What we know:
Strand order of the largest sheet: 2-1-10-9
Radius of gyration: 24 Å
Distance between the termini: 61 Å
Number of domains: 3
Strand content: 15-25%
Helix content: 25-40%
CATH class of the largest domain: Alpha Beta
Amino acid sequence: MTTQPQLPLQRLAHWAAQQPDQIWLRQPRDRQLHDTTWGQAQQQVNALAAALQQLGLQPGDKVAILSKNCAEWFITDLALQAGGFISVPIYPTASADTVRYVLNHSGAKAIFLGKLDNPDALQAAIPDSMLRFDMNHPTLPCQYQWSQLLTMAEPMTADIAMPADLMTIIYTSGSTGNPKGALLTYGAYSFAIDIIATELGATSTDRVISYLPLAHITERSYIEGSALASGATVFFVESLQTFVEDVQIATPTLFLSVPRLWTVFRQNIIDKVGHSKLKLALSLPLIKGLVAAKIRKELGLDQARLLGCGSAPVSPALLNWYRRIGMDISEAWGMTENAGLGTLSAPFRADKIGTVGKPPRHCEIKLGDNQELLFKSPALFSGYYQNDAATAEAFDDDGFFRTGDQAQIDADGYMSITGRIKDNFKTAKGKYVAPVPIERQLAQDPNIELVCVIGSGQPYPVALIQLTEGAQLLAPTEVENSLQATIRQVNQVMESHATLGGALLVTDPWTVENEVLTPTLKIKRHVLEQRFTDLIGDIRQEQICWQTQ
């Protein structure tokens, strides 16, 4: 039996009453912080909700949010709740086709438009007839400005929803085909953020920084949600160029990132100091601590008591590298469909590196056919919007969600993700290959920024590799020798049918813009398979090939 936690608007009301003058949101503009207190946030939420009602929007209407992270994103999200509207977040890096699809599929009546890197590219995806609201940042043309909305009507008294009411439709990042809209209730989201804040030990003295997409459930639950649950202060990033400085200003006590960014941070450190010089410094007891402390300070993470990593598989070698500079990074696993709450490895345990933790209270995991991970908790979604067939397939007879992930669970209940069922492929030898464990092993090579193993119907699996910027400056033979040694090491622990034939070094960068990465920086494996399958068939004997233009 579980007790229903407070809903987000109840959390906001609590902190607005308990600490109305304490700063909640810190938004940099032109290198100056613009602050919003808890009391001001509640006033803006209620004013914005009243304006939307005055403009004719009705409770139950869907309203989209298309913006990079900013203080106004939080205010908008809560205002939609206050007015009884259903939010539809869209990734700010989504293509025009994806934006058009989500708006049409969800039936959104209006859209909030905020910080965007390339707004003109999305102009045609938004119907001229749709109500557009500005979010106080330069963006596409809108009928109503943020300042207008906040003064249009007397602030309303927000109605508190019922736990079973629909709060938001979260569209998956679309690693295969069109995204599906997961239906998340107030009760599911509130349960998730309550457990997350408790597991993280979050309090009102904590500082977090919001920079991963708020359209993704991880950021919305772990950052926005845990701040609502704990009363923590939230900083934002002004731009990609100011990211490091913004983290240094925030000095977060809790900091979350994704494997690719942790890899980039490491590479930036190595490029700045030098691989050999850094390795030597960290091997000398007298100066190791000073060097490690300086690195943490330059990253802005010297006051972080908890560091996290999620969203995609990460190499244990990378986590062990960070351990050497005094940064213990905990892994977690979650999905859109369980409000981001799955398993956590907080507090950190060195003996559990390589796992994604274990389920917290009221969450259950078990393994089904083909080692598929099955999950159940009060945070589970209600189904996929306008897709009854997918909803029916998503659950087993006992109400467990079929995650599509393959996993192992150890004697202590800690879980390891071993792959995605849909990612496994058969080579010409007729046996299935799970690419994720191979990719995790390959990622230990510091020359590799991104890797994807493909090989359906081929004699051998082959690794597609995107090199780090530093590796691209090295002599080709040096890179090839390093990668051959890594592949040889990996092949020694692989079954014969899963040994790598070699690698193809891809010169075209993998980005969100060219459709290789999702907005959450996951690799779209099917896209790379389509582009490169014809080029890998002759790669053999740990051969390293370079993509020709």
